[in-house]
Specification:
homodimer, 248 residues, 7-stranded parallel β-sheet, 11 helices, 7 strands, elongated
C-alpha cells in the first residue's frame, strides 16, 4: 500500500523543509516524493535535514506545474487547514488511512502539501477528491510542513500495519507465558498464609484487604516467571524468622 | 485531558529540537514542557524554531535530574524504538491515547523523550509504566525528536477529541487516586530493603530481579491505597522476626 503513495510538495519555500519531509517519509516507509516548483532545490540544507533519507531526495521528481505531478494518479488528496467557501469533502488523517486501505489495489495516490505561508491555493484544492484536515488546536493550528507530512505518513503506516497489528496483541512479544488461574489461586493462598503468619491480616488489615490484593495482582496479568519470583519472596519471608532465631 | 500531559525531554542535544517540540506541542493543544539537563537552553535557535509557540518555551521547567521532572506524576510513559532484554509493556501511540482517555480524571501524565543520539537510557525506561513505540519502517526508524513529539501529541489530541464524545469509562469510577512516581520509588526502595533483609535478593535472586519487580508493579498502576497496603506488608515483614524472637 505504501508504494502507491506519492507525497507532493507544492511551491515549498524552505529547502530544509524538503529535507525534513524526506526523513519523515522514509521513517514511515514512504519513498515517492514530487516537488512542484520548489524555490530552492537541490540545496545543502535539504541534504542536511534529510539525514539518512538522502535517497528519497535523490529520487525526488521536480516538475514545473502541479498537473505534471499528479497526471497518472487515481486519487488526489489535499491537506488543508482552512474551511473553504465551497465546502469540499473533508476527512481526518485517520479517515484517510481507512479509506486508502479499502481502495482497489492499483493506481497511484497523491497527497498534496502547499507552501509554508499559505498552504494549497484554491486551484490545487479543487483538483482534489477530498481534503484532509489535521485536527489542530484552533488557537495555533500552524503545523510545520514536515510535521504535517509526518502525521499523514504515520497514519498511512498505521493503516498499512493495521491488519497485522490486530493479530498481534500487546503481549505478543512477552518472554514468559502468563500465569494460569490455578497458579494465581495458589499464589493468593500463599500470600494470605504469609500475611497471617506475619500478623498483618489480623492486626492492621484495611477492610477487604485480600480483595484489593487480588484486584491488584490480577490486573497486572503476571507471567509465570513473575509469579515464581513472588512465590519465592513469600517463601523467603516464611523462612526468615527461623533463620534468625535458630541459626545453624 | 490535555492539561494533564507533561512532555519531558531528557538530555536534548540540539536547541532547535526543543523549539520544534514546543511548536509541535502547541499545535496540538499541549503546553507543559519539562527539560531535563538540556545541553543548550535557553538558545536563539530554540526560539526561532518555536515560531509562535514561544510561550511554551517561556514556561518550560528546566531540572537537573529526571526524578525531579516526574515526582508528582501518576503515569510515566517512555518513548522507545528499541526492544529490551527484559521486555516491558509496549503500546503504540494510538493505544496510548486510548489508555489515557480511560484513566481516572486526576494526576499528571509524563511522556519522556530521550536524547537524539540514543533515546532514553535503561534507568529512565525502568521508571516507566509502559513504553510507547511509534511504528516506523525497520529500515530507517530514526524519527527526528520533534517529529516523534508531533505524532504523540497528535494521538493525544485525537484521543481528547474522542473522549469528549464518549461516556465515562469504568476506570472513571476508581476509588483512590493513582500512586505518584515518588510514592512508587519509595515503595521500590522499601521492597528492595526487605528483600535484602529476608536474604532473598542475595541468595536466590533470578537475574534482573528488581527490574522484573519494577515492571510488574508499574504495569498494574497501583492506586495510593494499594501502595499503602503493600508498604504495610513490607513493614510487617520487617517487624515479624523481632516479634517472634523477642516477645514482650
Amino acid at each position: 500500500m505504501l508504494d502507491r503513495i506519492r507525497i507532493v510538495l507544492v511551491n515549498t519555500s524552505h529547502p530544509g523543509n524538503i529535507g525534513s519531509t524526506a526523513r519523515a517519509m522514509k521513517t514511515m516507509g514512504l519513498s515517492e516524493l514530487y516537488l512542484v516548483a520548489p524555490k530552492k532545490f537541490p540545496h545543502l540544507q535539504a541534504m542536511e535535514l534529510a539525514a539518512n533519507a538522502a535517497d528519497v531526495l535523490d529520487q525526488a521528481v521536480v516538475v514545473d506545474a502541479l498537473g505534471l505531478a499528479i497526471a497518472d494518479c487515481t486519487l488526489i488528496l489535499g491537506t488543508s487547514a482552512r474551511s473553504r467557501t465551497v465546502p469540499w469533502p473533508v476527512i481526518s488523517p485517520r479517515e484517510m488511512g481507512e479509506t486508502i486501505k479499502q481502495l482497489p489495489p492499483h493506481g497511484q495516490i497523491a497527497i498534496l502539501f502547499g507552501c509554508e505561508q499559505s498552504g494549497l491555493d484554491n486551484e490545487a484544492l479543487q483538483r482534489c477528491h477530498w481534503h484532509v484536515q489535521i485536527p489542530a488546536d484552533p488557537r495555533y493550528p500552524s503545523l510545520n510542513l514536515a510535521a504535517a507530512v509526518q502525521i499523514i505518513a504515520y497514519e498511512l503506516k498505521m493503516a498499512s500495519l493495521e491488519a497485522s497489528l490486530e493479530e498481534k496483541s500487546m503481549l505478543g512479544q512477552w518472554d514468559h507465558r502468563l500465569a494460569t488461574a490455578d497458579e494465581m489461586e495458589k499464589f493468593f493462598s500463599h500470600l494470605q498464609q504469609v500475611l497471617i503468619e506475619i500478623d498483618f491480616l489480623k492486626i492492621t488489615a484495611p477492610r477487604k484487604l485480600m480483595t484489593r490484593l487480588r484486584r491488584l495482582f490480577l490486573r497486572t496479568q503476571p507471567d509465570v516467571m513473575e509469579i515464581n519470583i513472588l512465590r519465592g519472596i513469600l517463601t523467603a519471608v516464611q523462612a526468615a524468622p527461623r533463620d534468625i532465631c535458630n541459626p545453624e
